[in-house]
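Q: I have 278 residues here and want to know how they pack in 3D. Can you give me a structure?
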Amino acid sequence: MSTDHQQARVSLGARLRELRAEVTGRELAARLGWPQSKVSKLETGRQTATPSDLAQWAEATGHPGVAGELQARLEGLESHTRSWRRQLRAGHKPVQDALLVEYERSTELRAWQSSMVVGLLQTPDYARSVFSGFATLHRSPRDLEEAVRARIRRQDLLYQSGRTFHIVMWEAALHAGVCPPAVLAAQLDRLVGVIGLDTVRLGIVPFGAQVSVPPGPGFWIYDDRLAIVEDWHAELWLDDEPSLTVYQRVWDALRESAVYGSTAHRLISRARAQVAPF
């Protein structure tokens, strides 16, 4: 068994343990009609759960809504590539729930986005437009409202001490028409307010800025343990040191070309003026 596989199985076990926090392992085993040893083995990563095990676990712990998230984690054990087709089988909300776990585990989060406003800073209407577009692209269940609520709920972390969000976006993300003009105007107003948060450092790479690497796909780095990279067909979840080092270098290079504070504010205001009078 590979080290990556075992680490992923341990991570899944930790998530199972979180879900049963309100009951003991013995109580859960009794509810499921399992030996207590099976509960222990699943939680410690010594045994791989089946899809049926995960569905029963979610139901017995009072969290039936996370069954899709757990299934996505199970299917990702053998690979760093998590296809959108597989992840979105149960809709967008389970994907948002899985990401929340990684946000909560992290204290320093770094992001790059070139094509749209990052999810953590999106307004509900902007997020709804984005989810709608991807649901159409991937022919996935349109659980738009549940997905929007999950994404917006994650934004509570912006107002909690103990985490730092360092976000860099290309100026193009401020202009992308992924939503109606009035929605984009409100989204840009939201970004202006974010600049003042003490947990957020927002940088914008201007059009025409000299960059040492091309503005590529969006990604997040969670502490120094995980990078999640977005592509059209899949997400890449990378936790090996060589891959993390590459994405850290990319992020550092793009950050060096970004502007902050009042200069970033001016770029946002310029984009906002182009969608006036909303």
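Q: Anything worth noting?
A: The longest helix spans residues 3-19. The chain has a mean pLDDT of 92.
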